[in-house]
Structure formats: C-alpha cells, structure tokens
Specification:
alpha+beta; about 20% helix; branched-chain amino acid biosynthesis; transferase; single chain; B_amino_transII; BCAT-like_C; 9-stranded mixed beta sheet; binds 2-OXO-4-methylpentanoic acid; about 350 residues; disordered C terminus; amino-acid biosynthesis
Length: about 350
C-alpha cells in the first residue's frame, strides 16, 4: 500500500536524490491529442522496449525551482521562461505542442499538493523537473507519434557536494558540447550524457565540472562555451587607463543554453550600472592574459540547479588559472540585487514580478 515518505532534514539534502510523493503525468497520441492530466503517487513508468526515447534520445526537459520565502509564501522563479524553452526543445525533437499556460497551472497544482516538502532553509528549494519523452514503439527514425509529459519534484540543496563553496572547472578542449547548426541551445537529454566522460577526466584533477573550450583555429586557447551543467561568467578588468569592469558571458549564438539564471544575472548586472555587461565571444587566451596581469577578478557559473556557483580554478592538463575570489559569490551578488520584483519579464519591458506566487 502507498505511504507518504518521511520528511528529511532539509539541510542534509543532496541534489536530486530525494523525490516528493506525487508526480504529474499526461500522455499524447497523434490524432487524439493530450489525455487529461493526473497527479498520482510517484512510481515507475511503463515503456515499450522500442519506445523512441530509449533508442534515439527523443527527450527534452526543464529545470525549475519553487522557493519558500521568509513570508512563508511559495514562489516559482520565472516559470514562463521554462515553459517557452520546453516548447522550443519539444518542437526541435518533433515532440507535441502543449498549452504553456495550462502546463504551468498543472505544475502549480502539483506544487500545492507537495507544499509541505518545500524547505525553508536558505539555499534550499524544491527542484521541478518537467520531462517530455517520445514513447512510440518504433525503431525507424521518424517523427513522434506518441509522447508522455511528466513532472517530478525533488527537494534540494546546493548542486555541488561542496555546497556554495567555490569549485574548480576542468578546461575541456578535446570534446565539444555543441557545434554550429547543432542543438546546444536546446534543453535535451542528448546534450548532457556526452559531458559525463570529460567531467570524469576533470574529477581526477580535483574539478567538479568541465568548461568546454572549443578550438576555433583563430586563437591558441579556443572559444569559451559553457560548463556541463551551467552557463559561465567572467568578471574582467579591462586593460588601459579606464580599467573598466566588464562582466562577460558567451552570446546566445546557437551553441549556448539560454539559461534562466543567466538571463537574470545579465538583467541584474545591467541594472547595477557599475560595469559593462557583455554577451560576446570570449577566447580563452583573453582569460589567460587577464589572469596573468591580475585582471581576472571573478568567475562563476549560473543555472537553476547550481544557482550562482563561484569558481576558483580553471584547470588545464599542465597548468591552472587561479581566480582570486574571496567570498561567497551568491551572497555578494544578492547583496547588490535590487530585488526580483524590479526585473523586467523576458517578453516585455514593463516592470513586473519575476516570481509566480502560488
Ligand atoms: C538545471 O540547472 O536545471 C539543469 O538542468 C542542469 C542539470 C545538470 C541539473
């Protein structure tokens, strides 16, 4: 008989290891459309061994979070952006269209059912994982005829076992994460599995993640991309008399995942008004030169799972760049932030709250 799981002490939570009691699910068939969504006890799903997802990685997903505020209210962080991105990823894989407003309402209902699971410790939340898979049992490579959309919830703490403490990244130049004309800008499972082996190489050198740097034939170091689980930012003091501060992240040129946290940091940093904020190609040589002359001030990753993750080392096979960051990046940025309500929504210039209150 089904029984609710016992609650755990929030502060001991590891990322992605505990799930709440229920899941949302809804199925789709070509010609018939979507079934009615249901919220059921979390449990295994049954798939035909020939389901497209198992052979051709017909799968896309989202990462969202719900936080409990100091006022006890639950808030989703910029959830419309996740619905938009899921729709784009699904379209790229020929997975079916869905009503973004309705899906968000269903997710809110699931969160309401599981509201007791949302931790109130700082830095803790419930991670929401909407997932869409091609379930059609067919070994030919062709458009999806049957699909399933499900949403599971996982109470989480920081993504990396070190917490929000700074990590090192392994500079990966042999394997690429994305390429021009590819699918690097979609949130699909197929973009993540190939990052695990390079990550393992880096872990032998004390690194928690990889930073993909793509050889482009134009520079010795190559072009900075993103990390296996996060977008990447560099705070650099420019050369010359002005010594201007510049916050740089690679542009959304088709190779980079359009991260919700990335977008948030860009909007907040532009609002600070005390630094130049650039989305531009960044060659690794520039990072090395900045480090050599003491102008590389800060490096951090951004992502829903990892939030804002300080980076203190960029490790190569035979050398290492040390980043002179001395503190807790998340707190440092939060202290400067004017509050999320002051941020513009992605699709409008009107100031409005980023947080969907439940
Ligand atoms: C997220 O940040 O939500 C992601 O999907 C990254 C994943 C590696 C956990």
């Amino acid at each position: 008989m089904w029984q609710a799981k016992p609650r755990l002490d929030a502060t001991t939570l590891k990322f992605g290891a505990v799930y709440t009691d229920h899941m949302l699910q809804v199925s789709w068939k070509d010609g018939l459309g979507w079934t009615a969504p249901s919220i059921d006890p979390l449990g295994p799903i049954s798939l035909h061994p020939c389901a497209q997802v198992l052979h051709y990685a017909v799968e896309c997903f989202e990462g969202m979070k719900v936080y409990k505020g100091k006022d006890g209210q639950l808030r989703l962080f910029r959830p419309e952006m996740n619905m938009d991105r899921l729709a784009r990823s699904a379209a790229r894989l020929t997975l079916p269209k869905f009503d973004k407003v309705e899906l968000l309402e269903c997710i809110k209902e699931l969160v309401r059912v599981e509201r007791d699971w949302v931790p109130d410790a700082e830095g803790f939340s419930v991670y929401i994982r909407p997932t869409m898979i091609g379930t059609h049992p067919f070994l030919g490579v062709g458009p999806t005829r049957e699909a399933m959309l499900y949403v599971i919830l996982s109470p989480v703490g920081p993504y990396f076992p070190s917490g929000l403490k700074p990590i090192k990244l392994y500079v990966e130049t042999e394997n690429v994460r994305a390429f021009s004309g590819g699918v690097g800008n979609y949130k699909i499972g197929g973009n993540y599995a190939p990052t695990i082996l390079p990550q393992l190489r880096g872990s032998h050198l004390g690194c928690s993640q990889v930073l993909f740097v793509m050889q482009d034939g134009k520079s010795k170091g190559g072009l900075v991309g993103e990390s296996g689980s996060m977008n990447i930012f560099f705070l650099i003091r420019q050369e010359g008399e002005s010594g201007e501060l510049e916050l740089v992240t690679p542009p959304l040129d088709g190779l980079i995942l359009p991260g919700v946290t990335r977008d948030t940091v860009l909007k907040l940093a532009r609002g600070f008004g005390d630094m130049k904020v650039s989305e531009r190609p960044l060659h690794f040589d520039e990072v090395e030169r900045a480090s050599e002359s003491g102008r590389l001030l800060e490096v951090f990753g951004t992502g829903t799972a990892c939030m804002i993750q300080p980076v203190v080392g960029l490790v190569m096979k035979d050398s290492e760049i040390t980043v002179p960051f001395d503190g807790d990046a998340a707190k440092h940025w939060l202290a400067k932030a004017p509050g999320t309500a002051a941020l513009p929504n992605s699709s409008s210039d009107e100031p409005l709250s980023l947080c969907g209150r439940l």
